[in-house]
Specification:
The chain has a single domain, classed as Immunoglobulin-like (Sandwich), CATH 2.60.40.10. It has 122 residues and is mostly beta strands. The strands form two sheets. It has a five-stranded mixed sheet. It has a five-stranded antiparallel sheet with strand order 2-3-4-8-7, with no helix packed on it. The protein has one helix spanning 8-13, and strands spanning 4-6, 16-19, 25-30, 41-48, 59-66, 71-72, 78-84, 87-93, 100-109, 112-121.
Length: 122
């Protein structure tokens, strides 16, 4: 897994993204820019395989937290729909304090299970 560490200024101006060991690209676009504290918002997660094709029908789970504080997200974000081929809607994201956050996405697909990790600083 490739880790992307983004600072607050970058979180405000670019999408969150990473690539898994097998080459699955994960791109996250928040419906809130900049990402705010104590505001519930949604994300669109776009997954493409190593050849650039949309990864459809994947099972996704997301957990997150602040590793330096040893606690998770204050909400339980859920994938509520596949908005289009390879793009999934995640609703209920909220960060309740500034600091270093880590998001872990588990991707279950036709070739197996993989994990993508994104670090961000709010």
């Amino acid at each position: 897994m490739l880790l992307s560490a983004l600072q607050a200024s970058e979180v405000n101006s670019v999408d969150l993204q990473t690539t898994t060991e097998s080459g699955i690209s994960v791109q996250i676009v928040s419906d809130m820019s900049p990402i705010g504290i104590n505001q519930i918002h949604s994300w669109h997660l776009t997954l493409t395989d190593s050849t650039g094709n949309p990864l459809t029908g994947a099972g996704l789970t997301l957990i997150g937290g602040m590793p330096d504080h040893d606690h998770g997200l204050p909400t339980l974000p859920l994938i509520t729909e596949q908005a289009q081929a390879g793009t999934y809607l995640l609703e209920g994201v909220r960060f309740h304090m500034p600091g270093k956050w880590q998001i872990t996405l588990t991707i279950i697909h036709h070739s197996g299970t993989e994990t993508a990790v994104i670090d961000l600083q709010l």
